[in-house]
Amino acid sequence: MISSATMVKFIKAGKVVVILQGRFAGKKAVVVRNHDEGTKDRPYGYAVVAGVERSPLKVTKAMGKKKTAKRSKVKPFVKIVNYNHMMPTRYGLELEQIKGTVSADTFKEPTQREDSKKVIKKLFEERYQTAVHIKCNMSRVPSVLNPTEEDIQLLLSAQCHIGTKNANTRMATYIHKRRADGINLINIGKTWEKLILAARVIASIENPQDIVVVSARPYGHRAALKFAKYIGAEAIVGRFTPGTFTNYITRSFREPRLVICTDPRSDFQAVLEASYVNIPVISLADTDSSLQYVDVAIPTNNKAKHAIGLIYWLMARAVLRLRGTLDYETAWDVMVDMFFYRDPEDIEKENAEAEIEEGDFAASAEAATGEWAVEGEATEGVAGIAAAADWSASRTTDWADETEAPATSSWEA
Length: 413
Fold this sequence. Notes:
This protein is of the alpha/beta class. The chain contains eleven helices and twelve strands. Required for the assembly and/or stability of the 40S ribosomal subunit. Required for the processing of the 20S rRNA-precursor to mature 18S rRNA in a late step of the maturation of 40S ribosomal subunits.
């Protein structure tokens, strides 16, 4: 138990505390008035606090005004709490209007307490609406970063919005709806927002070589290598060696400032080691992915080769545009097909077909030469007889010239 003498140093008006005991245990409250020395009725240190008994519920854009107003309501409470029954936090809340609503006479009559609750409720709801408005404005990106119609068509054609039948609790905010066959559909708008956020994080790294792209999934090998090539980062594809980020004795030891993963499940060793050394992690996440130790999750289909390649292509293009090396109005000359996974068997088939075509061409050339020679030998008619006669005549004449002279000389001798 913490003594009241120790709590005097921390508890003051405007301090946010957590109630430890009683009906409102675990609830947060703000100190309105503090009494360090106590009073005759309460000879101990205590404070008058105003807290939130029931917080506002989640609100979405699809909800109507009545439902939004109903779910945005706050249920407050006003209570006198002993110093030993509260724990101070590092947060503060400056609401001067609350101090005038709560006084020593507030707890004498129930009607006065209800009136003070109404005023506190109004102040808390206004504070909540202001915080929500600020949060919404912060999440908006400049118009130049908004997706074009072509980008949306690419995301849909690559099936980036197709999730799985299972859904993680932390991925529920990125799910648009559930189809009749049980497949969860990902919100493309959320995908684009997180993709731009990840690109802004990547572009903020001064040295691109301090970024490591990890992909143990085969479908992400080619995309990770191409992405690392165009942004100047380093890629680790295939098996991730344990200790790459934590054990400096290993040959593959790295000290990156940012880690980008393709799948939080297959790349969990890299994500775990990054959490040990406080390295931020950006990862592609499906509806069933675990977001443990992941700082920026890009909701997308990370099981299809076209979806993975397209997301890496879009992220690389966004990074180059943010760095200023690529103009927003001009298209990127690198095709998205370069980021797609290619099956080794298909590559071997293409190479074999190319070799067969080359062999066929050589064989056809030889056949054409052979046919020309055969046609010359098998020519019939006057030209053929003339050619044969010329050849035999030349040969007979040569032999006669070579044999006549020595024969004559021998008989004469």
